[in-house]
Amino acid sequence: MATPHIAGIVALIKEKHPSWSPTAITSAMMTTADVTGHSRTPILAQKTNQLASATPFDFGAGLVNPSREIDPGFVFKSGFKHYVLFLCSVPGVDDMSIRRAVGVGCPKKKRSWCSDLNTPSVTISNLVGSRNVFRRVTVAGVDEKYQVIVKEPLGVSVSVTPQVFKVNANASRHVNIALNATQTTNTYSFGEIMFQD
Predict the structure, then answer these.
(1) What pLDDT was estimated at residue 150?
(2) Locate the Subtilisin-like protease fibronectin type-III domain: which residues (predicted)?
(3) Long-range contacts made by residues 52-57, C-beta under 8 angstroms, separation at least 24?
(4) Angle at CA 113, nearest 5°, toward 151 and 119?
(5) How far is the C-alpha of 63 from the C-alpha of 74, rounded, in Å?
(6) Which of these, 6, 29, 9, 23, lies nearest to 76 by C-alpha position?
(7) 115 CB burial (10 A radius; 0-12, 13-18, 19+)
(8) Which of 50, 63, 107, 195 is most deeply buried (CB count within 10 A of its CB)?
(9) Cα(57)–Cα(44) distance, integer angstroms
(10) Of 56, 59, 57, residue with least CA distance to 46
């Protein structure tokens, strides 16, 4: 039943924001999802009684919340060229494979990191040292002001610049996320960056 529910929610969002791309709609659903239920315990834990072991690998972005998705504040937008750059940065994927799959090859400019795709999540599979990740938030409707709150993953120091920022209606703003490995964990760890308006 998940597919028809999501399709219906996408239709509602598209009706309210007809110019939004699939990535903007996905962003709205991800950034407004609930990871806790009415009892404030993780949604997956309510179903499986595995409170301590549930991670985003289990519950994704969370449980969709249609009432908040209509007005998420801002969205992360990506287009075709951004996905091509993403494919070109995947280790072991060659230009000819990408050309066959999508009809265009990799640009001549330096390849970026896979983590640079402008999505609501950041994944770095093997952080050694430090990495800067950039995101662009786009506001629709009215001016917005945000304060950044960070819950750091185990073994990683995270700082976001700017910490407080304003974005005018129908405009975008770049945000720099600096990640520094502070200890070796040999496992995935998860954190959270919240933009509080």
Answers:
(1) 96
(2) 116-197
(3) 55/188, 55/190, 56/121, 56/190, 57/188
(4) 55
(5) 19
(6) 23
(7) buried
(8) 195
(9) 11
(10) 59
Closest CA to 132 of 124, 144, 121: 124
Judge whether 74 and 144 are in contact, CB under 8 Å.
Answer: yes
Residue type at position 98: I
pLDDT digits (tens, 9 = 90+) for 66-121: 889 999 999 999 999 999 999 998 888 888 999 999 999 888 876 678 898 999 99
What percentage of the chain has pLDDT greater than the value 90?
A: 59
Contact between 130 and 179 under an 8 Å Cβ cutoff? The reply is yes
- Measured N-to-C along each axis, helices 80-89 and 95-102 cross at an angle, to the nearest 10 degrees, of 150
Instruction: Give the global pTM.
Output: 0.84
What b-and-e string marks burial along 181-191, b requiring 16 or more CB atoms within 10 Å of the CB? Answer: beeeeeeeeee
